[in-house]
Amino acid sequence: MGSFLSQPLEPIKVAAPPEVTNSAEPLPLAAPGAPTSPAEAPLLNNCWSCRVLSGSGLIGAGGYVYWVARKPMKLGYAPSPGTITQMVIGISIACWGVIILADPKGKAFRAD
């Protein structure tokens, strides 16, 4: 019982580095354009359903941020610089969602 922080830490086992050989032949290189490690893999899969989900989510989030900033103005309060900044950020988030949905470079594909 208890939280994760109260549990004792387990030691991390680090693998030994591979031995270096002094051979005259260099290691073969990866094909150009192919990811050489998992870290270089694309962050988004660019499938159509992923773009619709993330794009519409960003549009909704941007609309909400804008709406929350606009609500006091409708009640008659003067806009402050913070309110204007919040509205600009909300519009920017929504525009980011539109760009994801529009796919201007045409890299997305439909996963059928």
TrEMBL record:
Domain of life: Eukaryota
Matches recorded under Pfam families: DMAC1_Dmo2
Keyword set includes Transmembrane helix: yes
Keyword line: Membrane, Transmembrane, Transmembrane helix
Keyword rRNA-binding attached: no
Membrane-crossing residue ranges in chain numbering: 83-102
Occurrences of domain Distal membrane-arm assembly complex protein 1-like (ranges): 46-92
The protein's name: Distal membrane-arm assembly complex protein 1-like domain-containing protein
Organism annotation: Lynx pardinus
